[in-house]
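quick one before i forget lol
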Amino acid sequence: MKANKFSNIAAAAQKTTAATADKKSNTNEANNSPKTNIMPGVKAQTSQTAADKPEVTTLPKTGRPAGKRSNAGFKQVTAYIDIETYRKTKIRLFEEDNKEEFSQLVDKLLKNWLKQ
């Protein structure tokens, strides 16, 4: 009895292995065969020349505008500033009406210093 039980399991395993091998060979044959159009009556697209392509208009980009980081006219630098000086500077910049950035203030002060 037990021999029959195991022989059935072995036969099922062989069928599964054979089916998997068949699928693999079919897949390999399909990948190696020349590509054909799946939809009858529809021609495959060929590459278009520049004259054949329709003119594409680009829409303006949405989102944030480009910043200083992506502008070649600016360079990111590191400076060590007393923490209390930095805190008071940020508070004062926030309270002013012109809303100048910290980097703009540092740039302006350095330019004034260079003029001396």
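fyi The mean pLDDT is 77.
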